[in-house]
Amino acid sequence: MVLGILTAIAACPAIIGTTEAVRQGQKQSAKERHRGLKTKLFVGCSTASRNGKEVDGSEVVLSDNKLYLAMPSEAFPDGCEDDHPFAGYFLPYPDQDWGRAGEGFVSTISDEPPQLNWIYVDEDTHEVKYGDRAQSEPHVIGPWDVTKIDKRVTLEGWEGFMAVRYGPKEWALYFDRDDNGLKGILDDEMKKVEVVLVRREMKQAKPQDDDDET
């Protein structure tokens, strides 16, 4: 009996260690599923100004190799027809390994035919753009990641995103890489507000029954 008790006590650390390893593996699997889930992207802005209220809640769209905020305007009350809503996820960038710091970031740029592009920040203009590997590689391609609790998007370990006003109801997405309000990048007269990027799971369509297939 004593030997059995001693054996059980000796085995406890191994059992605890195995259980913890399983839990960590489950957490890692859940994290990977979350990161690989195709989501939409929305802007959040807590600034209590007219510009902040205007951009808050706007959906991010892709158009002409740049990321913009979709919002109704006099010219496009239903949104610009050339805009493609962001629909993307995290993906390892070729020949890059940032470890736990993050991965690359992709989005569809068309539905028919389905096509993906990399999301990146222009090294010179700090605009958030999209393009193929050749277009993105000379610029800031990652690491992209999310905050631990709210899962907001980060780049290079922090949230430096800004919305910049080009005109009435026209806002583009930038990354304030130098953390100076884009000083030296934009004219001082241009309106800009700090924003966060929020991922939202896309609506799931009803699955088709096998009997419906012909």
Automatic annotation (TrEMBL):
Signal peptide: 1-21
Keywords: Signal
Matches recorded under PANTHER family: RICIN B LECTIN DOMAIN-CONTAINING PROTEIN
Protein name: Uncharacterized protein
